[in-house]
Amino acid sequence: MTHFDDSDAMQAASLSARAMAARPMPYLEGLNPAQMQAVQTLDGPVLMLAGAGTGKTRALTARIAHLLAQGKARPNEILAVTFTNKAAREMRERLGRMMGEAVEGMPWLGTFHAICVKLLRRHAELIARQVPQGGELREIHLKSNFTILDTDDQLRLLKQLIQAAGIDEKRWPPRQLAGIIDHWKNRAWTPDKIPAHEAQAFDGKGVALYREYQDRLLVLNACDFGDLLLHVIDILQANDDVLAQYRRWFRYILVDEYQDTNVAQYLWLRLLAGGHKNICCVGDDDQSIYGWRGAEVGNILRFETDFEGAEVIRLEQNYRSTPHILGAASGVIAGNKGRLGKTLWTEAEEGEKVRLIGHWDGDEEARWIGEEAEAMQRGTRGLDPYSLDDMAILVRAAHQMRAFEDRFLTIGLPYRVIGGPRFYERLEIRDAMAYFRLVVSPEDDLAFERIVNTPKRGLGDKAQQTIQVMARANGVSLLEGARLCVRSKTIGGKGGKALGELVDGLDRWRAEMLDGRDHIRLAEEILDESGYTAFWQNEKTPEAPGRLENLKELVKALEGFENLQGFLEHVALIMDNETQAEEPKITLMTLHAAKGLEFPVVFLPGWEDGLFPSQRSMDESGVKGLEEERRLAYVGITRAEELCTISFAANRRVYGQWQSALPSRFIDELPEAHVEVLTPPGLYGGGFGATGMAAAQQSAMSGGVESNLQDKASKADVYNSPGWRRLQANASRPIRQPTEAKNLTIDASAVSAFGEGDRVFHTKFGYGDVTGIEGDKLEVAFDKAGTKKIVGRFLVPAAQAGEVPF
DNA sequence: CGAATACCGTTTTTT
DNA sequence: ACGGTATTCG
């Protein structure tokens, strides 16, 4: 066994650490007393309770700098864990800036998963299982070149196991089983540790399937994301020598976003921090919003008892938001029980109150926010103009974004959506990666299954089953099975020929790779010769051009790596889609995605009971669920630096059905002193001056809407919540009216660019025909997406977008 | 085998 | 309403 071969290096490292001795400490400059304490309390357990916007990353990086400068540890002796690659990258960059060239490395700064992969590659052999194979039990070890499965592979595997067990897939879908296994893994429960009351899961067969799944993974030499952590815990628990080694090695441990840790991560940290207890956890119990995926707020609440003698340091001075915004946020979060408690304060100017406005329906809400954003862009009511980059709309659920997208496309307001599938989990990227995987590891059966009929090669279920049978009968991989099928003509005809070509292609690419051919060229060749590129070129869906674009990006991403193997090693964990700065855009994202971000101007729409707080959350998790929703509200408000606008709609289309709702109970919890109620025109006798064209337009619109909506709730019902009435009584200012004459400004270039009957392309809606022109907006009948009104600058002539007539 | 149709589910998401 | 998937039909 060779897993201790780094120990000499460790010794050397800690010796010269002391030699580094004290140096000037510029990184301490400008820290407030609490931050200073958090930075300088180096030994023993520390809980840094860092409220929103209190400079936690700054303190964290300064702390690392201090550890290094004080000679307490060398860069490779500090374990610094984050949840996301983004957070890890940010910390690394900041540290680099702070320390100059002094730190190269920090090899152990990374996500839980990235660090686990590193550890697991060293000690994979220590993971062993008795797996039934060919009628007897065989001990199988994990090998250090294991592959990391994506969710798709995982699901396919589970589906196979469910089918093999003769379970009805309809009633017991693989997704559900994946969820259950994930839940168990979050708790660090291996198959033999599932408590009795949970063993009934999945028709009583969950545990058995879990066990089979783990067996299969080992045979495939693969891990899912949960395993990365679980295996490392297993190794540390079962091998005292390894544990002791790492406890000595990681002299100081730092953990970011501690409130998001699950049980497995907690156990992992406890194991590693067990000796010296030099662990500093940073977090905010009020921002724990990931309970639904296994995060345990309890971890942070229990910190002081878990780590005896822990020092708790509160960061409470906020550098982000105005007093009104902080006041509103504090008022809401005060409704939660069992908090560790913090009082945020700021030296900032009072600023604007949080604004609250109700709308008749979701479309009107989107319309109002769109116009408000445009007004802020120009500068309104004596406020300086804001860039669209300074504004964000934060929603509870992704489907709320649609109303905004539709509206913004119509008025031509540039927007950007954060979230959605990450680059590497997109269909085309995973397909391409499967090809690469298969070239690098021909025995990767999951990759083979993925691409054997992608692009279509005339190899359907039947042919694929034949390959499976052949492979199993001969005890070889699917690729080899396929080769046998071709040779023996078991699969003949068109499909057989195509399969033969695929097998030959894979052989050829692999040979080229082993010859040391340039991996970028090779990647291009693989995608071209396999027909994958052509497949998307022939596809006429609106997504196709984007997918080809992504494939190009994928090949470009290869530049950063030595070879295909190296690329595949890292890609599953590291790749995200970095969006490059373009023209200013308003940002649209979920509240969850907004955690850790900040914007001068924030809109929080959809504050209606049932939507936010989410009914489902309350049904499933009761008070705990409601409290998590409340923390989400807190997170949302505290994203705002200067101006925060909360809104709700009385009526909303949900799953195609109009539904009315009451204003969110969180609205009732907003302290009056920090809130200004904007009065919607027309709702209270229309006493506010709607004038001229804008008013006419407004009433025309609501009239049109209303007539279609007989079943909507009456206004009186809707605006009757106690909190809303209380706040309404305080209403100070009429709503800003839609801006005069906007529709008279016509973008001449847009008008002249297209004519009726033109064939056009839109990146979201695909191809369509121009059926009408109104001012600067075009009415386009899209082939797939229906008829939309769109500003000309979002459209491209179809021929230019690559559509081939007929 | 591949295209047309029936059916289902529908909060939040990282690695 | 809608989009993804599973089944059915040609």
UniProtKB/TrEMBL annotation:
Entry superkingdom: Bacteria
Residues involved in ATP binding: 50-57
Coiled coil: none
SUPFAM superfamilies: P-loop containing nucleoside triphosphate hydrolases
InterPro entries associated with the record: DExx_box_DNA_helicase_dom_sf, DNA_helicase_UvrD-like_C, DNA_helicase_UvrD/REP, P-loop_NTPase, UvrD-like_ATP-bd
Catalytic activity as recorded in UniProt: Couples ATP hydrolysis with the unwinding of duplex DNA by translocating in the 3'-5' direction; ATP + H2O = ADP + phosphate + H(+)
Domain UvrD-like helicase C-terminal, residue spans: 323-596
Presence of the UniProt keyword Hydrolase in the record: yes
Top-rank EC class of the record's enzyme: isomerase
Domain UvrD-like helicase ATP-binding per the UniProt entry, residue ranges: 29-322
Record keyword rRNA-binding present: no
UniProtKB keywords: ATP-binding, DNA-binding, Helicase, Hydrolase, Isomerase, Nucleotide-binding
EC number: 5.6.2.4
Family: Belongs to the helicase family. UvrD subfamily.
Protein name as annotated: DNA 3'-5' helicase
Organism encoding this protein: Jannaschia ovalis
